[in-house]
Amino acid sequence: MTAPSKTRVAVLISGSGTNMVSLAKAAQAADCPYEVVLVLSNIEDAAGLQKACDLGIEAVSVPHRAFGKDREAHEKAVHAELQKRDVQVVALAGYMRILTPWLVREWEGRMVNIHPSLLPLYPGLDTHARAIAAGDTEAGCTIHIVTEGMDEGPIIGQARVPVMQGDTPDMLAERVKEAEHRLYPQILSNFVIQSCN
């Protein structure tokens, strides 16, 4: 009896790829329902690309600068790379691009993102500084399905961390990042089981 095939996931990154690593390491477990078949970055020298290679995962860059202001043309090149590898689900993990409606529609219901705040609080950037400035007692991270509105899609998972007295944005970011690394593999596993089987 053959083992059931795993859902083919691509992880899109723009930087160090720490969440990608947590997803990829979780995928090594025999009972994980997904496998990371591609790591793609819009930044040619993103540190996460080397981390993917070290994990034995194909790593590709599609630099956005080559496309000027034509975001859709860049996304069509990204989409072509995903199609070449029969990708079924896309996980955004620090992919610092605002997506066009074209790509969102192509991957409707099959693309998830992780965001470093308790959405709907603090969409966009500088989430930790904003949480501290507001006097919040807790912060965290959210995983959501990607829709055309930035950080507005249906929430499929959250993790909360306390905001400590004297926290700087960097200190809070480190604690949130630890929560992200625990949460994302678990939620992605649940998502692919529900959406792909």
UniProtKB/TrEMBL annotation:
The record marks D151 as: Raises pKa of active site His. The active site is at H115 (proton donor). The keyword Transferase applies. N(1)-(5-phospho-beta-D-ribosyl)glycinamide binds at G17, T18, N19. CDD domains: FMT_core_GART. Residues 8-187 form the Formyl transferase N-terminal domain. The keyword Transferase applies. It holds the Pfam family Formyl_trans_N. Its EC number is 2.1.2.2. Keywords: Purine biosynthesis, Transferase. Pathway: Purine metabolism; IMP biosynthesis via de novo pathway; N(2)-formyl-N(1)-(5-phospho-D-ribosyl)glycinamide from N(1)-(5-phospho-D-ribosyl)glycinamide (10-formyl THF route): step 1/1. It catalyses: N(1)-(5-phospho-beta-D-ribosyl)glycinamide + (6R)-10-formyltetrahydrofolate = N(2)-formyl-N(1)-(5-phospho-beta-D-ribosyl)glycinamide + (6S)-5,6,7,8-tetrahydrofolate + H(+). It comes from the Bacteria. InterPro entries: Formyl_transf_N, Formyl_transf_N_sf, GART. (6R)-10-formyltetrahydrofolate binds at R71, M96, R97, I98, L99, N113. Belongs to the GART family. Catalyzes the transfer of a formyl group from 10-formyltetrahydrofolate to 5-phospho-ribosyl-glycinamide (GAR), producing 5-phospho-ribosyl-N-formylglycinamide (FGAR) and tetrahydrofolate. This is Phosphoribosylglycinamide formyltransferase. It comes from Brevundimonas terrae. The gene is purN.
